Amino acid sequence: MRILVMHSLADSSVRYGENIDHHKHDVTYVSTLAKLGTLPNNVPARVIERPGAGDTAEEVLAAVKGLPKPDLIITLSEFDVIAAAQVRETLGVPGATVRQVLPVRNKVVMKSAVARAGLRVPRFAPLPQVLVQGAESVPWKGRTVLKPLSGVLAQQIQIFPTAAMALDAVRRGEVPVPVEDFEIEEFISGRIMHIDGVLAGGRPISILASRYVGTCLAYAEGSPLGSVQIDTGPELVEWSLSCLKAVGIENGLFHLEAIAAPEGPVFLEVGARCGGGGVIDSFELATGIRMPGVAVRVLVEGPVDLPEARIPGPDERYGWFLIPGHTLGSRYCRISGEQPFRDDPLVHRWSQRGLDEPVKFSYASSNVPIAAMLGPSSTATLERYMDSLFTSVRVQPHDGSA
């Protein structure tokens, strides 16, 4: 089989060599210069560099011009889902079309599909529509979220006390957004969960739920973020599968976020990708499943010879956290108060930036002041540790001198 990999996710996460037989298949990787160093080593494969400055689909098509048509196109990046569909359609390669992948990239299309399936979603509307019809056209009162249709990492999300105040801010130019790329939705209170896993033919190879400690929005604004694995009972599994079916995810990765409301989960959003932060590693520690690698293997070979997923017990759960530094106003930071937590036997892995190592906005452990993996232990123990650490550790600006 001829396989085209639109490369983005690093081999350290995917382990391409373990999950694609590069001797059996003719494999081509198309990668940007910045990502070349994250390709697999010591595998027989064709590597083509693309500029990475223009339209992704156009660059990939130019890169593979003259090569035999691939039988399979693989992408593991949320940013490349639509581009991969465009490449498939242009080359006539089987797989998801642009129309089929829109529900996992456009939040209005996404929530509309989930609502049609009879599942609860926050009430919402496209921003241009509400700007024309006025705040009185929205069917909710109170806190309102302004959100990009296809954004990630909670960037550009803002919360206002009312829909009217959100619209006023947009009209005054206080929110520099292209209105056609945004929606507004009602704010629903509750802890946020993420449910992650891999599907094959609509059935889960492995699925696991976690609960955030902090929020992605607060993290973007400079607060710590973590998550801890929780019970993944049959009802939550069934609800998750219904959401995935509604948006057309039947094979591969998923990262589903929901609000744990008193009357049951409320769908927030879903991506055909792995979660960020420590999601991939903590999932593997708990279940034995390396999500992106297994997803690639399923796409190439089908659901055969896969590792058997473990179901972690109550004291066999893992968690992860990130302490950010991107809002310090400094490239470097000084950390204090971390030593008792670093020495705790609950720590499975700890990463910490030195005084002369720069920090930036990221979900990667190599870019933030502190990142750690915790466990195995109970959900409650993991959460107590994070709550204490988040209020005790201090990260301050530094000039970068050792």
Based on the model shown, name its key terms.
alpha+beta; 402 residues; D-amino Acid Aminotransferase, Chain A, domain 1; eight-stranded antiparallel β-sheet; 14 helices; Rossmann fold; 18 strands; Dna Ligase, domain 1; 3 domains; 28% strand; four-stranded parallel β-sheet
Describe the structure.
The chain is an alpha+beta fold. The protein folds into three domains: 2-95, Rossmann fold (3-Layer(aba) Sandwich), CATH 3.40.50; 123-186, Dna Ligase, domain 1 (2-Layer Sandwich), CATH 3.30.1490; 191-398, ATP-grasp fold, B domain (D-amino Acid Aminotransferase, Chain A, domain 1, 2-Layer Sandwich), CATH 3.30.470. 28% of the residues lie in helices and 28% in strands. The chain contains 14 helices and 18 strands. The chain has an eight-stranded antiparallel β-sheet with strand order 13-12-9-10-11-14-17-16, with helices on both faces. α6 (107-116) packs across α10. The longest helix is centred in the middle third of the chain and has 14 residues, at 234-247. The chain is globular and about 55 Å long. The model has no long low-confidence stretch (mean pLDDT 94).
The beta-strand count equals 18
CATH-derived architecture of the largest domain: 2-Layer Sandwich
Query: Which percent range describes the beta-strand content?
Result: 25-35%
CATH class of the largest domain: Alpha Beta
Q: Report on the biggest sheet.
A: 8 strands, antiparallel
What coarse outline follows from CA principal-axis ratios? globular
**Helix run count:** 14
The gyration radius over C-alpha positions equals 22 Å
CATH overall fold name of the largest domain: D-amino Acid Aminotransferase, Chain A, domain 1
Low-confidence stretches: none
CATH superfamily annotation of the largest domain: ATP-grasp fold, B domain
Strand order of the largest sheet: 13-12-9-10-11-14-17-16
Ends apart, CA distance between termini: 53 Å
Q: Let me know the average pLDDT.
A: 94
Structural domain tally: 3
Query: What structural category arises from helix and sheet content?
Result: alpha+beta
